[in-house]
Amino acid sequence: MAKKGNRIQVILECTEQKNTSVPGMSRYITTKNKKNTTERIELKKYNPFLKKVTVHKEIK
Fold this sequence. Notes:
Blueprint: E1 7-14, E2 27-33, E3 42-47, E4 52-59
Antiparallel strand pairs: 1-2, 1-4, 3-4
């Protein structure tokens, strides 16, 4: 049987694209350990619409 772990799936969304008039939204799905990381995570990921690396924050 599979263990019930503390890892949950989270969605990361680009924060810089909201301020621009570029259509589309860059989102990534990743996992985090909810016991070790209780706050929302921020990672630098590639945004194909802006064609550069931007900060992506966890959304609910």
